[in-house]
Amino acid sequence: MYSSPPEHPSSLYPQVDLSNPDATSSSPSSSSSLYPSLDMKDLAENLFPDDATALHTHQDSAEQLLLKVPGAIVHLIERETSVELACGDLCIVSLLQGDNVVAVFARLGDDIQWPLAKDEPVVKLDASHYFFTLRVPSNGSFEDGKDSNQTEDVLNYGLTIAAKGQEGLLKELDRILETYSCFSVQQVKGIENWNLVDARNVAPEELNRKEKRDLIVGSAMAYWTTLAPNVEDYNGSIAKAIASGSGYVVKGILWCGDVTVDRLKWGNDFLSKRIKSGSTSEISPEALRRMKRVKKLTKMSEKVAN
Question: Which region ranges are annotated with the description Disordered (predicted)?
């Protein structure tokens, strides 16, 4: 038996007279409601879907290739020795749920993948050099609530692109980065006479020849290792801005692109040793630890995408 509910003058919602069960479906006043009618059965099914419904929703997600740029090399930027992580085609892909973009990733083959986000800086230094700054939990866990006092590791990815003949693709890359990341354009000063292979004058197919590839990769390694202090200083400024409550708007952070004479000399010596036949570079324990974070970040991104 139905009974009228007590009146609540302060209620934010209109009262419904339940004395007539058919009133809710036949009353002409329903046309004046601010909200569409909703079947409670449908609501329950949407909030608590069964396995079949959840599977169908998962299958509705799709991956879309936004851009593919051949001739890309990615290094983990380190002050002592930057580490090559991958070489091949740079793919920018979006994860779609229906018509909505859920996430956007940068990917090189099966070796490495990382997310693009509006609160993560991407800096373009010239037509063939970009670096990406990513913050990941230092304890290796990406699950919320594991450690409320956990600190973060900063991973810096240096992207080098064989840019010759790819001006149109790189213009599109800049547009995508502007849309999906905190993108800015900066300059490096003091390296005009540096004896490096200029990737802007290298075509992607040249990376298919081992001798030329080794030379280009070696030059990219020297470039990012030499610039590592500048990249670290930039990240330090970002961290201070965030800690001071300035938020994640980092486009105005000052980039110091001056390379000191001593650091440039160090870079030339590093490159000379690197291109010698049979030479190897030692990787610091800190770099090895960050390389593990790279793998975890890639696995996490793949898990989201799948």
Answer: 1-35
